Request: fold
Amino acid sequence: MTAFSKMHGLGNDFVMIDGMAEAPQLSAQQVAALCDRHFGIGADGIIIVEPSPRAECAGYMHYINADGTLAQMCGNGVRCFAKFLVDNGYVDRDAHELIADTLAGPRPIRFTRSEDGSMAQATVSMGAPILNPATIPVDRATNAQTPGGVPYVREIELDSPWGSFAFTCVSMGNPHAVCFIDDISALPEDAFVDLAQRSLATLDVARIGAFFESHPVFPEKANIEFATIAPDGITMRVFERGCAETQACGTGACAVQVAAVLTHDAPRENDVHLLGGTLRITWRADDIVEMTGPAACAFTGDVDLEAYDE
Reply:
């Protein structure tokens, strides 16, 4: 039997497995079965907590999407990863910061503790946004420049069965395509699951997001965000690459904040409202994006991994 923790960041949930002594090798079939919400534990992905080859890092976050594909980075996942390390004694009891190793590189994290010493909230330094289309990757030429002169792909029009959508492309260690819906009434009726109320909340993200996730313009697929901007911040929904729609996406919130600054002259610090709650995202003047939010443990248990390989 293998011990696991079920953790989440604003409802974006993960099966956490301690691989610090010995990391299990999971097949794509095992991952999909464990993440199945009817026959498995249920999650958006699996995170195996492993030792890092980098001396400065507290551990390596091996993150696998629910469909069995490897992911470079996950913002909500890295907060859960930090909480797992803190709560299980892998960092000093007096520490309030650590560095997490990921496929996208090291991520410094500051965190607060509850009275019992467990991690309550974390601020993750997510690094600088990547705007080079070849690195994101997106198969389009740059068509705009940031105020600092960095070329990027801004609001490219992509056709779909529901009309044309304009996407700004950003990588936060994984590819994102952000669409701001400025006029919800301009979308056709079949773009909504509730025709009586056209809004971002009733947008048919399951179908529209899936269509664009695997659009040929994204050679490695992409996370697809739909967002609106209001005085109290940015509201978004996300279809995550390899997962479908999720309650929250930390890297997606960061990408949306960057795109909002570039395309709508939004403030460089915003509350980003997701289905599962709110993240505070700051795009600092030194180009670093910071994400602040909670992480929680829902329950722990033991699982027979071999039973999920049938």
In short: The chain has a mean pLDDT of 96. The first helix runs from residue 28 to 35.
